[in-house]
Amino acid sequence: MALKALFPPLGTEATNPIVALRASFRRMTNYKIDIVSDTVCPWCYVGKNRLDKAIEAHKQTNPSDTFSTTWYPFYLNPDAPKSVDKQSYYEKKFGAQRTQVMQGHLARLGSQVGINFAFGGRTGNTRDSHRLVQLAKTKGEGMQTKVIEQLFNAYFEVNEDITDQEILIQRGVKAGLDEQEVRDWMANGKGGPEVDKEVAMAQRKFVTGVPNFTINGKYEVQGAEEPAAFLQIFGEVKETVEGQNGSKIGGENVC
């Protein structure tokens, strides 16, 4: 009997699911995304949700690809007091008219990515909120992102004061952290030195505004770019040979 009869051709990706699965795994790409942000930067919230949309779109045609995200801190105002009126702070910083224009612009863009921006409440120093994110980092990337989402929702959508440790504890617990561990962490200043070290690291890398995204160590997106910008880089990563230089996109929509 001919070998051809014993071992019939497997076919193509289109006709044989086994071939398609093998091809999919051969083409699988792992994306490591480092995000530098501040918890009171509205563009960081917009940028995160735009990134999420890009990942969702990419995985529709590349279901085997994986994504991991790590969040790093940034201080937009390292000398900010604990808690001040948010609206008054922005009007003093930018002027009443410019603040109104900025808020209207953010409200429109936010609605496109599932954010219902509210502009009341209080603002202030973000070091404690970054310490909470640092605790979440010790539990894995999934927990870190959950805490980030809780903080963004608290500050930008329901006007909670994330300089208040009780609010931080509540949000940490909502994300899935153990309440007693969060209380101990916050009360004893844990995570502070690590946060300060990571802020200094971002400065040494010449990060001057946030959000800042670095993909696979060499592709940089500055600002809350549209999902298409991330999709472009995801495509470049799949096609790039090891050792080839990366690229930089953006520079607008930053805090």
Automatic annotation (TrEMBL):
| Residue ranges of every copy of the DSBA-like thioredoxin domain listed in the record | 33-232
Gene Ontology terms, MF aspect: oxidoreductase activity
Xref: InterPro entries: DSBA-like_thioredoxin_dom, Thioredoxin-like_sf
Write the protein's name. DSBA-like thioredoxin domain-containing protein
Q: What species is this protein from?
A: Hortaea werneckii
